[in-house]
Write a structure and sequence with these properties.
Layout: H1 7-11, E1 18-20, E2 27-33, H2 36-43, H3 45-51, E3 56-62, H4 64-76, E4 84-87, H5 91-97, H6 105-110, H7 121-126, E5 128-129, E6 132-133, E7 136-141, E8 143-148, H8 149-154, H9 165-175, H10 197-206, H11 223-239, H12 249-257, E9 263-267, H13 271-274, E10 286-290, E11 303-308, H14 316-326, H15 329-339, H16 356-361, H17 366-375, H18 399-414, H19 420-442
Parallel strand pairs: 2-3, 2-4
Antiparallel strand pairs: 1-3, 4-11, 5-6, 7-11, 8-9, 8-10
Helix pairs in contact: 10-11, 18-19
Length: 443
């Protein structure tokens, strides 16, 4: 497995996690997020080189929070460090509107066998601007809950297909055994708009809360939003993992897969870790339920780690060659045959779920994944109307900063450094400032 670099290496000049070739005129610098699926792609890059010996690859692999900051800074300022960037359905339409990304629809349409209509519809739509694709999905995800079937059976508990958050809290209390290093549940506490806010926002939505009302009045201190935020903080503090305030996706993946948590609510892409016989002690012992709800029928988020080409790329044609390799139908089969079918990137292509070997490996989680992704509606994420699009984010440029600052307040409350009420009050003040700017713009 290729080693991963640090953010400092990027600042020193885009040092790579690994490079293939001699740095010729067709060198591509690829900025990606350092999680298991992306690491798999790096490990398989020699397969791309066999087909494209004229292309040299240099990977820059960063943690989720670092990747967002570095990639955003580079693309927004026209820095030109990267030829391919890993972004999401948050950045894609915003950056496309700003003219920062290459329109990929012509490339996708003219590439034999690529079949952009095979992408899961909700994901394809989320990565489009004015009907054209501006990034292509490496994998897509919603969110659901994984739980230990054996522990539930031992405790005489039954998990509903669509549990409520109160049911989950009750289960967590019964299964929490700190003396045995067993957490009732694992939930992200690490600060970041794409870290702890991702799951917490879905709780806010289904409790009836929202970030702003239709007039851009901040709503984080409303009774519904406050109840949801306090519920999340208290659940993590009472029955979550040790050190929860600094635990992100990777930390929960490790804790759950090592058998130290009874439940974990997070991205559907978790299956690549928790069902891997090589990496997980609980593979084959898991059940899956839809994202917990309160006042809504469903509450799973919608997200896609996707690949885009900045307008500053010096070699967009070669960039597309690499991107189309990493996101096509054959890549799914390559991962399955080389690394194991449980490690196939999920949630991007409908055809993936028709592969017999994958269908067998994914029997426990394929259907819950597709249900969650099909039900995710980022246009109507809340009980009450809102002026924005997004389930676990708000589709405005200011949200990167706003979300980060609010996430820091939530993390501090989880750590016990401030009270939940203090976190809510400060978060509301941040949101008020952003909302007022939009109110002024409407005058």
């Amino acid at each position: 497995m290729i080693g991963l670099i640090t953010a400092a290496a990027v600042l020193a000049g885009c040092g790579g996690a690994g490079s293939w070739g001699s740095g010729g005129k067709n060198q591509l610098v690829v900025a990606i997020v350092s999680n298991s699926q992306m690491s798999d792609a790096i490990s398989l890059a020699d397969e791309f080189k066999k087909q494209h010996p004229d292309v040299d690859l240099r990977f820059v692999s960063l943690s989720e929070n670092e990747a967002r900051a570095k990639i955003t800074a580079s693309v927004a300022t026209g820095g030109g460090e990267f030829d391919v960037v890993m972004i999401s359905n948050y950045e894609t339409p915003l950056w496309a509107a700003n003219g920062w990304l290459v329109n990929l629809q012509p490339y996708a349409d003219k590439t034999p066998g690529y079949d952009p209509n095979d992408f899961i519809p909700t994901v394809k739509e989320a990565l489009s601007y004015k009907g054209d694709l501006y990034s292509v999905p490496f994998y897509g995800e919603s969110s659901f809950l994984v739980y230990r079937k054996d522990l539930f059976k031992q405790a005489g508990l039954t998990m509903p297909d669509r549990p409520t958050w109160q049911q989950i809290a009750d289960f967590a209390a019964k299964l929490d055994k700190p003396a045995q290093n067993m957490s009732g549940i694992c939930l992200r506490g690490l600060a970041g708009w794409g870290e702890n806010l991702a799951p917490m926002d879905t709780v806010v939505n289904t409790f009836g809360g929202r970030w702003f009302d239709q007039n851009w009045n901040a709503q984080l201190d409303s009774p519904e939003s406050s109840a949801a935020i306090k519920f999340y903080i208290n659940l993590v503090r009472q029955h979550g993992e040790p050190g929860a305030a600094t635990a992100g996706f990777s930390d929960c993946a490790n804790r759950y897969s090592q058998g130290n948590a009874a439940m974990w609510y997070d991205a559907t892409s978790m299956v690549g870790v928790v069902e891997s016989p090589k990496d997980s002690k609980v593979a084959g012992k898991n059940g899956y339920a839809q994202a917990p709800v309160e006042k809504t029928k469903s509450s799973g988020w919608l997200y896609s780690w996707s690949l885009g080409i900045p307008k500053t790329s010096k070699n967009p044609d070669k960039a597309w060659e690499f991107m189309s390799w990493m996101t096509n139908k054959d890549y799914m089969k390559l991962v399955g045959n080389k690394l194991g079918w449980e490690r196939v990137p999920p949630g991007s292509r409908l055809s993936t779920y028709q592969i017999p070997e994958y269908a067998k490996a994914a029997e426990a989680y394929a259907k819950p994944t597709l249900i969650a992704m099909n039900e995710a509606n980022q246009d109507k994420p809340t009980v009450q109307p809102v002026p924005y699009v997004g389930i676990q984010f708000v589709d405005i440029p200011e949200f990167q900063d706003l979300g980060t600052r609010v996430a820091q307040q939530i993390s501090a409350a989880i750590a016990g450094q401030i009270s939940p009420d203090q976190a809510i009050k400060q978060s509301q003040s941040y949101a008020v400032d952003v909302g007022e700017a939009y109110q002024e713009a409407k005058k």
